[in-house]
Amino acid sequence: MAKVLDRHETPAEIKSAELLRRYREVCDLLPDARVEVIDGRIVVREVPTGEHNDVVSRLILQVAALVASRGWSLWTNIKLFLGPQVDRYIPDLTIVPKDRRMWGEDEVYGASTLLVVEVVSKSSVRDDHVVKPESCAIAGVPLFLVIDTFTATARLLSQPDGGTYRTEVEVALGDPLELPSPWDLTVDTKALTGQ
């Protein structure tokens, strides 16, 4: 049956609504998969490798005591609500304060996070380095960390301003990385590699 168009809907709104409908269908079809909308594409990610999970685990071990002492939470499987755009990301790690702002039960507002972390996989290089940081800056994610074991670097983006971050610090894995306020914590990036 043909859809009757609402005279007030623009072609972009129709396309957006259709994408979200298809996204929900894929989520329902694959409830245990990591399904994201990235740059207008529905992306089903492969199961992370052991090495990928080890990097996330080693970072969690470094920040866990501080997170616990401040009543924050470490989430490994939550969607970011990025505002009116349709993209939906599930970061490798999201750290939120006790008084976080939620959009429904399974999406946290980007501006309500304390740190969003992506560990680059072979299939996510462009998304993790370019697409996600731009959308997260628009949504006000205060700190966005990209850990790339392929290039042996860690990139911390901060001070979101529109579609970009004003501050970017990149270190070689092995060098210390300072997380600014409210963290005031140094991450041992050498430990992220298991060395």
Structure description:
The chain has 195 residues and is α+β, with helices and mostly antiparallel strands. The chain has four helices and 13 strands. It has helices spanning 11-29, 50-69, 125-139, 189-192, and strands spanning 34-38, 41-45, 73-75, 79-81, 88-89, 93-96, 107-109, 115-119, 143-148, 153-161, 164-172, 176-179, 185-188. The strands form four sheets. A six-stranded mixed sheet has the order 3-6-8-9-10-11. It is globular, with a radius of gyration of 17 Å. The N and C termini lie far apart (60 Å).
Annotation field: number of helices: 4
| SSE sequence, one letter per element | HEEHEEEEEEHEEEEEH
**Fraction of residues in helix:** 25-40%
Question: What's the mean pLDDT score?
Answer: 87
Radius of gyration: 17 Å
Could you describe the largest sheet, including whether it forms a barrel?
6 strands, mixed
Content of β-strand: 25-35%
Major sheet: order of its strands?
3-6-8-9-10-11
Distance between the amino and carboxyl termini: 60 Å
Q: Point out poorly predicted stretches.
A: none
Shape field: globular
Please count the beta strands (DSSP E, at least 2 residues each).
13
Derived from helix and strand composition plus strand pairing, the structural class reads alpha+beta
Summarize the structure.
This protein has 195 residues and is of the alpha+beta class. The protein is built from four helices and 13 strands.
Question: Helices and strands in order, then pairings?
Answer:
Layout lengths: L10 H19 L4 E5 L2 E5 L4 H20 L3 E3 L3 E3 L6 E2 L3 E4 L10 E3 L5 E5 L5 H15 L3 E6 L4 E9 L2 E9 L3 E4 L5 E4 H4 L3
Parallel strand pairs: 4-7, 8-9
Antiparallel strand pairs: 1-2, 3-6, 4-5, 6-8, 9-10, 10-11, 12-13
